[in-house]
Amino acid sequence: MTTLDNTLRPVVSQHQPSQRAGARPGETEAGLLEHATPVRTRRRQRLALDVAPGEVIYIVRSGLLGIEAAAAGKHRQLLELFYPGDIIRRTLVPDLPGVTLTSLSVAEVWRLPVRSYDHLLATNPEQLAQSQRRLAEQHARATLHASIIGGLSGDERFASLLVELGLRLGQVGRGAVVFDVPLSRTDIADYLSLNPDTLSRITSRFKAHGLLQHARSGHTVLPAWDALCAATPLAATLLALHAPRG
Amino acid sequence: MTTLDNTLRPVVSQHQPSQRAGARPGETEAGLLEHATPVRTRRRQRLALDVAPGEVIYIVRSGLLGIEAAAAGKHRQLLELFYPGDIIRRTLVPDLPGVTLTSLSVAEVWRLPVRSYDHLLATNPEQLAQSQRRLAEQHARATLHASIIGGLSGDERFASLLVELGLRLGQVGRGAVVFDVPLSRTDIADYLSLNPDTLSRITSRFKAHGLLQHARSGHTVLPAWDALCAATPLAATLLALHAPRG
DNA sequence: ACGCCGGTTTGACCAGGATCAAGCGGCAAA
DNA sequence: TTTGCCGCTTGATCCTGGTCAAACCGGCGT
């Protein structure tokens, strides 16, 4: 269990072992790198979806980004999370009032103009297949999120998020899953469509039930993975979409 | 109060004029048709996402389809609507308990094997561009739906749906927008994550406020379009995603 | 040490929807 | 026709989660 507390001292999250989807090296990366500009972001940094000459594409390399929206008078919403390997472009995002692409942790992304990207897809079948797979996966995740928000109770939503993050970022040590959460408390509340007060109650309840612990050094520990999975009706679905090799 | 009985006498929705996105003819269609099998569905018919040799792709030509899920003990959910031009494949859908692709009205779809489709994309740049655009739009709609479910009140959700359907299916006549809803009442409730009782109250309220009427012949009338748009904070966003030519 | 600050917790209260139950109307099978 | 089923409406009641407010906590600059 290595330390990685990016909340306090933001550090690039190195959580994905090299075999994790999207970060795997290969000839597809080489093609991308010719046209891509690597960008390193700090926490809370906003990335423009339209840049000077035209639309751009971002490909996440490490860290966690998200789409947020904040209609006037309404609460902020965190609509979608982007993990390493994900593809982000303007047209994927509905133009809600106040939408922004924000880096939720220190992250590394590749930026490239759509023209280069489209050309790459048209000429490189491997690249095309990879992109199609990835976009489909992102769509499935968006739909799953809608299902979670719309159909589950507060506790179940939170359990689902913990399972998701555990699968994405977790290190297994002695039966427990350990990671540190790149999301602030309000981020989580906004992502789950709960209010921070309610979320606080839920976390207290989880801690009381032994489903969650906060270790010093900012780590989150899930001591009872199976019990946690039992706390959400969608554990199997989450596993399919978020497991390494997913 | 006339009964809005599309349940009883299902009618093919003919509402999309030819200039509507996705239904426009052209050389891209010709390429598809070589490999596609046209399928005509009846209401409530379920379509398999995996067929004998492998995965298949559906392209909606007319009518309305949807993804539904029904976890044991949980309510049914209508997760996503598919309009003419939309592309549907297995990998776009999270494998929730009880997911099915269902035809919500009489509809016409083209079915083709992924292999043909992928080959088409790899060899036909116009087809590729079209597909990318469409998938991005579908993703944006999925995200928007999550935003609606997660952030709006019951009334606002319903108003949003009426605006969406009005833009998609509506005919403007003397200031009012008229169409018939291809969704049953329970479909709507499941789509908006409301329960049918609550939805019934909301519709009554809308009728009382003059935002909604049920004409004989099963038509729904929106007599006050502007007032309806004012009833949802997301009217502008919906317009951008659902307007003809969108 | 002090006080300020933002984020978190906790309590008391409130409200939007869910749930349950009764009643109604339309259609289909008997 | 009667009977039964199903979907819609409406009322009464309940409960989850939102709102508001106060206390708490840790970090930080002075």
Task: Provide an overview of this structure.
Two copies of one chain form a homodimer. With 246 residues, chain A is α+β, with helices and mostly antiparallel strands. In chain A, 39% of the residues lie in helices and 23% in strands. Chain A contains eight helices and 13 strands. Chain A has helices spanning 27-35, 114-123, 125-151, 154-169, 185-192, 196-208, 225-230, 235-242; strands at residues 37-41, 46-47, 50-51, 54-62, 65-69, 77-82, 87-89, 100-103, 107-113, 171-173, 176-179, 213-215, 219-222. In chain A, strands 1, 3, 4, 7 and 9 form a five-stranded antiparallel β-sheet that branches. The first copy, chain A, has a four-stranded antiparallel β-sheet with strand order 2-8-5-6. In chain A, a hairpin with a 7-residue loop joins strand 5 and strand 6 (77-82). Chain A is globular. Chains A and B meet through strand 6, helix 2, helix 3 and helix 8 of A and strand 6, helix 2, helix 3 and helix 8 of B. Chain B binds a DNA duplex (30 and 30 nucleotides) through helix 6.
Low-confidence stretches of chain A: 1-25
Radius of gyration of chain A: 18 Å
Helical stretch count of chain A?
8
Interface with most residues: A-B, 48 and 48 residues
Oligomeric state of shown chains: homodimer
The total of beta strands of chain A comes to 13
Q: What is the 3D form of chain A?
A: globular
Q: Beta-strand percentage of chain A?
A: 15-25%
Taking the sheet with the most strands of chain A, its summary is: 5 strands, antiparallel
**Helix-strand string of chain A:** HEEEEEEEEEHHHEEHHEEHH
Report, as a whole number of angstroms, the end-to-end distance of chain A. Answer: 23 Å
Provide the helix percentage of chain A: 25-40%
Helix and strand content put the structural class of chain A at alpha+beta
Mean pLDDT, all residues of chain A: 84
